[in-house]
Amino acid sequence: MSAVVVTPEDPRAGDVVALLEAHLDLMRRISPPGHVHALDVDALAAPDVTFLTARADTGLLGVGALKQLDGRRAEIKSMHIASAVRGRGVARQMVETLIALAVERRADWIGLETGPQPEFEPARSLYRSFGFEI
Q1: Which end of the chain is more exposed for a tag (fewer CB within 10 A), N or C?
Q2: What residues are paired with 65 via a beta bridge?
Q3: Among candidate residues 99, 78, 70, the one with its CA nearest the CA of residue 24
Q4: Are 29 and 36 in contact (CB under 8 A)?
Q5: 115 exposed, middle or buried (CB, 10 Å; 0-12, 13-18, 19+)?
């Protein structure tokens, strides 16, 4: 895989919308009703959200967002890596970029939510490796 570049992008871009729809479909399938906390395209385009994509010359690899909750708190939202490239460090690079963005904005608290279902274990493991308490 060529170099991965994580940058801000419009969540309404065509290939991004398709990956976000796949993410929301997955979250709806594996999360209990009323417990899907992933943001839709409109919410990801809100002014208090910075939406990022991970791309390589092969195309879109993943997405993630940082929602500014207030002046000192931020939350990682809607992380999703294309299944074909999972386990190749794309998620780690996305989380590193999101944390760096929060630090740059002087957040003193960064949070996230992830489910207790077995399907979320890789995400929980990744987040724990950054010091998040799950």
Answers
A1: N
A2: 51, 77
A3: 78
A4: no
A5: middle
- Give the pLDDT of residue 120: 87
The span from the CA of 61 to the CA of 91, in Å, is 9
* 123 and 114 Cβ atoms separated by less than 8 Å: yes
* 69-128 tens-digit pLDDT: 988 999 999 999 999 999 999 999 999 999 999 999 999 999 998 888 898 899 999 999
Cβ(88)–Cβ(1) under 8 Å? yes
Sheet holding 59-68, edge to edge: 5-8, 49-56, 59-68, 73-81, 109-111
Token pair belonging to 67: 């929602």
